[in-house]
Specification:
Elements (H helix, E strand, L loop, with lengths): L1 E11 L4 E12 L4 E5 L6 H9 L6 E6 L2 E5 L4 E2 L7 E4 L11 H7 L8 H14 L15 H13 L5 E5 L7 H18 L3 E5 L2 H7 L2 E6 L2 E6 L1 H6 L4 H6 L4 E10 L5 E6 L2 E6 L10 E6 L5 E2 L2 H6 L3 E11 L3 E8 L2 E8 L9 E5 L6 E4 L4
Parallel strand pairs: 3-9, 3-10, 7-8, 8-9
Antiparallel strand pairs: 1-2, 1-4, 4-5, 5-6, 10-11, 12-13, 12-15, 13-14, 15-21, 16-20, 17-18, 17-20, 18-19
Helix pairs in contact: 2-4, 3-4
Amino acid sequence: MLTVEAIRKSFKTKSETVAAVADVSFNVDTGRMLTLLGPSGCGKTSTLRCIAGLERADSGKIVIDGLSLFDSTANLFVPANKRGMGMVFQSYAIWPHMSVYENVAYALNGKGYRSAEVKRLTFEALARVQLENYADRPATRLSGGQQQRVAIARALAGHPKAILFDEPLSNLDTQLRADMRTEIRRLQQEIGMTALYVTHDQAEALAISDHIIIMRKGEVIEQGGPVEIYRRPKHIFTASFIGQSNLIPGKVLSVDPSTFIAAVDTELGLLRGFDTNRNLQPGEKVMLCIRPEDLSMAADKVQSENPNAISGSVLVSIFLGSVVEAHLMCGDTRIKCEFGRYADVARGKQLSLTFAPEAAVVLRAEQA
């Protein structure tokens, strides 16, 4: 297990001291993939670099498998090359003058391995990423995706205690990113690697993670499994940052204590959603958050019988292949929806919409 306890890291500029990481704590369970997710400048990479030993935290503690790597109270700092971790960088960091084999074997140099063991571990790592037949190829003759596979193989060689991924797919095109994130998830599950992954890409985080930590301004906003984070966010920032949400302001009228379904007075009428924090009180200002894919078209009769019913006129309709994205004007509120590819949602059409109360979440407005 990798344990990060109350890590703080600041950087000084000419005019001020900026807190990049503010009292961040979490655990990465053995054999699991944890992702730090957030916008640029939120502190996720600084946290990763402190764990890797590439930066020295101002305070806190970092422990892996019972071995302390950093402890500010004991003035302990283990250098990066002695932490027993592999790292995959955004830039690949592949040596252009070396072959594929030499790039991977380089990670084992100076660690006391005999040449036969270096060869075995190198080919074992290349086989993991399906590049064993490329061992003699010059690194300059590899595609971007192949270079990233070499970087992953290099990180795997020597069986590190944990692997750290610093936005490793951001230089790849869209299709290759999707392929590589699947490959990374396959590897992680197949060999049970303990991994910490940093990204600003929400789809990437949802696809590869066992656990996600949302960061903003150097702090942890919330954390949980991918399904929990997406379906039941506890903070407005999470609801708006991961995926897309329609945010409808309102005021709580009541909360059912048995189901935690809150009735909310909004400019679109009385709407109901799930009190995900389970502590809202009548009179509180809130945001009702509903995902575009959870809105359904309904006949007028069905709409009149549904506790969540809104209607509006199609402002714009966009065909995206697998879905049709529509933006509706419902009074003065713009609502985004996603329908099946055959949906008839031409501009100007009047639509009736419904959604299940359990599909929406109700969050305190002051969280924003």
